[in-house]
Amino acid sequence: MSAQRDPVLILEYENESILVPRPDSTCSYDELREIVSSTFPTLEGREADIIIATNEFDSCRGVWTKVSGPALPIVLPLVTTLKISLVNRNAQGGFAQKIASILFQPRLQPVDPPTSPVVSRFPSSSAQTGTQEAPFFVYVRNGGHWVTSICIDSNATVGKLKEQIQQVAGRVLDHGLTLDAYGIQSGQTIDMVDGSMKVGKPVIYLFSPVEREASVKLSLVPQWQISVLYPVVPVKQKVPSGQEMEWAVRTSPDGTLHELSTGLNVSYLFWEGETTAEIPLSPPPSPILSSEDGETQNTEIFIPNQPHLGDHNSVLVATNEVTPYLDATLKALGLHTEARTSFITYWLPSILKHKHVALRFLPQYAYERAAPLCVTPAPDVVLRIFMLFRGVKECDLGEWENSRLRKEDNVEWWKEVVGSDIGRAVDSSLFRVIEWGGMEVKEY
């Protein structure tokens, strides 16, 4: 096999393959994306979203693997076909890109590490030039499954490596040290950390002025899965829609519930879950049009394993101020004293691990799409409060200036965000369903 292949290259996108003149090894990633978009007119204007992949190196093990910028000069002279895909961009932002970058076959059968650290199918750079060393590769593995290989300089910092690993599935090593400092050798396997996030103690209260029997059915999108619930009832797996569980309860005017299938008396229904690595089967729907004025509404799509928490939609709170802020906000949203106390005491240990936290409350409609709740007979009021938060390091505070200023606003503005009607939420003459929960957004 010769080191230089045909003067033409196959670009493959969806069900179409087109021959193009082979770019030389000096071609940049942006220039190659321009070639791709001019070859496939439907990609014009989406150059920044274009992903380029190959499966022709031994290190790929037949898996279509994203080509990084540093690897492009090595790849271009040697491959026959480049496969084109698009980043799955949506309203949730960055984490969607990380998941989408596990290209084409996110679930692979475990394999043994390669016996040779060099990509044996192609001649090494030293064989071609007589001066350069063979490419330096590390293999990134997630949960025991091979995902991709990364071509990188052995003198690169771990921070640089993390930038490339983040395109696959998260962060793993300390920023400032070099790969040599960790003793990482070419061809060595790097294990990925578990990137799941815990859904913390959502509890569901049912308040009715009269005794009544009700069915409470909770469903979860595939990006969430149940880890525990109480009272314990069967969890059904619905493919491809996710998990589903149902409680049958009898309410009492004092707020307690009798769960009929288990015979348990409880104050509320409780569940916890964790995120999965599932990728949405299709992009989120486009913004909808208001039927009243025809103006476009910005409707948020909440995907549990792609939570969006940033300077533009949160408040930054020092942890020594977080309890009064949360109590005031939860009260404004309509939570009664016991619920506010339970919420704060549950999350406080996690919050106090940080000096500052950024937090936000999801619009109820966005949370509802991720965890649909069906109560029969239909209640007069359904209030579902779900908080996202994350720690913010001292060195990063400058990136959260809008959040810091927003914290000084009256907490009443959260009512508009969530969509709560406090008057009805506290009206004891109504049949009310009230839920609170949250999730810590972790950075890997």
Automatic annotation (TrEMBL):
<protein>
    <recommendedName>
        <fullName>Ubiquitin-like domain-containing protein</fullName>
    </recommendedName>
</protein>
<dbReference type="InterPro" id="IPR029071">
    <property type="entry name" value="Ubiquitin-like_domsf"/>
</dbReference>
